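ARCHIVE CARD
SHELF: 3
SLOT: left
DATA:
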Amino acid sequence: YGGPAKRTRIVEEFSMALQTGNVSYEVGQPLEYPFNESYNEGGPSVTADNSQLFFTVCQMSKEGYENCDIYYCKKDEYGYWGSINSVGEHINTPNAWESQPSVSADGKYLYFVSNREGGEGGLDLYVCTKKINGEWEAPVNLGKEINTYKNEKSPFIHSDSETLYFASDGHPTLGGYDIYFSKADIDNLEFGVPTNIGYPINTKAD
């Protein structure tokens, strides 16, 4: 009491809760090392075989800029998550925000959000394709059918690897951000005109 005021830092902890019944979960606990070693971590996406985990790691730069990038880890032969690795400097950039990864069920496609230069404006959706050697190709902007001059975010690729759900405030909305879906020709990753999933899920609110 009477000393200098302390600044409270809000940290988003990467946590897990086990299922205890058909619809019930325990309270949950933060994940242990190697997780939760950074400023903020979260936004997980797991392949269907539960072998690869993609998530966002945010670090505060010396200039006070919170830069978010995408990292991944794999399960080892004993069922534990291994070391955390960047998806690559050709995807993660030092001066832009890469976040909210969504990996396809087969692990071949990685969708994410970025505000990097060269997009359609605001936050855009991108996709990377995995090469035969396991590395990721350069990100591809999903184009003007999906991205607008405003913001598209929160991508989720369905287990069919062809249906993409996302939020946008740039397409015609009921108000604020609405949720949309779009079907892709998976052979060339070209998505069709998004469909607003409508009321009562979408409302005048975000």
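SLOT: right
DATA:
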Amino acid sequence: MYKPLTVLVLTSILSLTLYAGPMKAGMAKVVITPPTPIMLAGYAARKSPAESRYQDLYAKALAIWDDRDRAVVIVTADILGFTDELTAAVSEAAKEKYGLQRDQIIFNSSHTHSGPVIRKNLIGAYQLNAEQATKIHEYTLALQEKLVWVIGKALREKTIARLSLGSGQADFAVNRRQSGPEGIRIGVNPGGPVDKEVPVLMVESNHDVLLGVIFLYACHNTTLTDSFNQLSGDYAGFAQNAFEQKHPGSVAMFVQGCGGDVNPNPRGTLELATSYGNKLAEVVDSVIAGKLREVKGPVRTAYEKVLIGFDKLPSKEELTARLSETDVFRRRHAERMLARLERDGSLRKDYAYPVQVLQIGGDFTFVALGGEVVTDYALRIKKELGGKSLFVAGYSNDVMGYIPSQRMFSEGGYEVDASMIYYDLPTRWNPGVEEVIFSKVLDLVRVTGGRK
């Protein structure tokens, strides 16, 4: 357990005591469906670009203000992952246009595997020709502009609002790290860790008009597999659409949780993706129809990057030996790493990893972690901070690779070892990465006011 600094605790208590004014909020959305043909993200097995869309993709924003007009904006998008480059560019534009600081914007991607490739995200998984690479670059620039626009639109929709929090459960997620004679593989592990909670934040105007909801579920957006080659938001897209159709004029925002080691089960068809989306929308609907807790209080935010290290880096000799391997992705990874060794003299030893915390009074905490974070992180954070009134999101601000928990390093498997070549990282993380990240989470929770 950590010990909050006394001065910070006293400041937080004083702020909560003095807080009396109404909350304000604004919500907005914009279509981000790219023109086709375009390469879809997430599956290295796809060889050809998508020629059509099954459903539109969206970026959405929720802006929240306290009575001091301190604001935070949560941005979600139907894409595989944000990059640090993309969120930095959007944040700089939002600072210039709207006066927002970096800690006042949270970015979260749904991690749909049926959305477009984003420049520099999971780049080692694709074999792109020059034309495809150009389209992806152009789309990423257009997406950047739309993200800036939707932030501004949410800010302009500012109105007195009531925020209420509740939670339900959905049961189609299952741990995918299946143990067998050859070690850990991606399969079905019913006994593995999974987080079934669906926390929901409802936003209403002061006239009891539903403005929208933001809800979280920790599960890969991979109901649709590599054989599906149309643009789609997968189950998260269907869930948002189903809720908005039932509540015309509202905005439904999906937040991806810590589901790096979790898949929908079963999966593989549009019917399943639609069914899971409808079920998730029904859970959200039942939550907002039930007993909710009002969220009210000062808005506090913190954003920092902490260095997480890599394990033993591959030598030039090891990388050279891989050039003769039959696996094209491992071979190309070795080529890129050798080129960096030649250019820089060494491979990077660590990565600047983003951790962000939003707290609203003592009623709501949103922890946003970068990368494909596995379930253990959310379960540990909930245990430490208390599960109620808490969103623990992965896939936030920068999706640079899988983030395994410490216990997984002795087991190995895709998330620990093999995935790094697709994310263009030199090797796997140091096994101590969990402690570094968790310690920073506690630091930022303390800085923003602390929890019991």
